[in-house]
Amino acid sequence: MASLKIESHPFASFVPSPMKCLIIGSFPGKEQTRGSLDENAWFYGSPYNQLWRILEQAYDRGLKTKNDKQQLFEEAGIGMTDIFKSIIRTAGSNLDENLQIVEYNKDEIEKILKAFQPQVFCTSRFVEKEFKKMFPAYAAVDVLPSPSPRYFKLSIAQKAEIYKKKLPPAKKAD
């Protein structure tokens, strides 16, 4: 049996200023943690994850590059981070239930919450549960429809409508 490897998060938190909301996920997919990241790799970079397709529809714009994604988040005041800093993947998939937590990203999230008091949006009920364990008094928490293709109760278009209602609009810089 192969030994299980500790994976460290490959991305720094994205913290625009001012920040209105913070999207918190669990941990990047295994495709993003093998050291073969190209310059456009960023959060939710698995080809199966739907986040960027959802946001393309919600904001009616292309989000093909890391720069495109960060530009949108700057304009809308959206930050992004993950709840876990390091994990062990107990099975060969990206499912949250296969993540054994080695280290939480608590210090970073706490710093962001104190600096901005953003509305927090979790990308799954699992992330919401973990967030509430760490920050039980933080009231501004909501859950977005999961961008996982496994959450197929809603289409990408239906998810995009919900994201559009919940997330702040993008304001182009003058």
TrEMBL record:
Pfam families xref list: UDG
All residue ranges annotated as the Uracil-DNA glycosylase-like domain in the record: 16-153
Matching InterPro entries: Uracil-DNA_glycosylase-like, Uracil-DNA_glycosylase-like_sf
Domain of life of the source: Bacteria
SUPFAM superfamilies assigned: Uracil-DNA glycosylase-like
Membrane-spanning parts: none
Protein name, per record: Uracil-DNA glycosylase family protein
